[in-house]
Amino acid sequence: MDRPSSPPPRSGPVSASNAVPESNAVPAQDPQPSNPAGSAGPAPRTGAAPHRGGRDQAGRRRARERAATDRDIRQTARTLLVEHGPEAVTLRAIARELGITAPALYRYYGSRDDLLEHLRADVVADLGEALAGEIAGHEAGGPRRLFAICRGFRQWALAHINEFTLVFASGATAATSSTAKLQQLTEPFGRLFLLAAGDVLLADEAALPSDDVVPAELRDDLAGYRDALLAVLAGAGIDVPPQRLTVGTTYLMMQFWARLYGHVTLEVFGNYPIPLAKPDALFDALLADLAREIGLDTTVT
């Protein structure tokens, strides 16, 4: 008589000492069978190769996780900046807040300077968005937009002192070299300011200085910067004739920014030479002076 056939073997060897009755077996993942000692050749594969779509999904999942972690890093860095200032934004502090090791951050940023440059770009984008709201109610193409930007810049700086410090009052790093500063013309804040200045340059009433007012030692540098300004304006669809944006006009624009920036910086850090009960009045006077120097009526401020 034939003997009853045995049940099919279970995946993987099972010894008598660790066999589990089928009724009590707990479903488990199929283990990858090991290659028993002395057997010839590699152990057989228990399943088909992962589908390419599965690999793609895993790659997308890792990309999403990486993006989420990058956002977490930047948000944590921004919180440290706002609450404690630029000096508090360190890789060690960010890692401590996120519960990870500082070396893990180097997967995302090559150095602290690299992280700060990305954070600076985030702050500049927010500033540009705030100023775009300030000028939304003003007529496009008129000089009032330039002075609305000046006022909005001051208000933002006074309300965001630590962010202002990072972007406008921190020492230059490798990431903020002269070349990078020229590229900042195309960033939200620089672009808004420059486009508004372009509107003023095209205004018939604007009084533009001659090149004779420029010290001879500065003319070569200003000529190169003038060419960069013309390129940015042209890229934005604003065709400023070269005779309107001369070396003398470029010098005037540089002086305009230096006076605005210097005034705001003194006010932000409380460095006015005398205490002022009404600082708004002093800022109004500054804008009126700047308008007169350009040949504009002070009512545009």
Automatic annotation (TrEMBL):
Give the DNA-binding residues. Answer: 90-109
Tell me the domain of life. Answer: Bacteria
HTH tetR-type domain residues: 67-127
Q: Which InterPro entries match?
A: Homeodomain-like_sf (IPR009057), HTH-type_TetR-like_transc_reg (IPR050109), HTH_TetR (IPR001647), MT1864/Rv1816-like_C (IPR025996), Tet_transcr_reg_TetR-rel_C_sf (IPR036271)
Q: Which GO terms describe its molecular function?
A: DNA-binding transcription factor activity; transcription cis-regulatory region binding
Gene3D superfamilies for the chain: Tetracycline Repressor, domain 2
Q: Where is this region: Disordered?
A: 1-72
Q: Where is the composition biased (Basic and acidic residues)?
A: 53-72
Alphabetic keyword roster: DNA-binding, Transcription, Transcription regulation
Q: Where is the composition biased (Pro residues)?
A: 1-11
Q: Where is the composition biased (Low complexity)?
A: 31-44
Q: Which PANTHER family match?
A: HTH-TYPE TRANSCRIPTIONAL REGULATOR RUTR, HTH-TYPE TRANSCRIPTIONAL REGULATOR RV1816
Q: What is this protein called?
A: AcrR family transcriptional regulator
- What SUPFAM superfamilies does the record point to? Homeodomain-like, Tetracyclin repressor-like, C-terminal domain
Q: Which organism is it from?
A: Prauserella sediminis
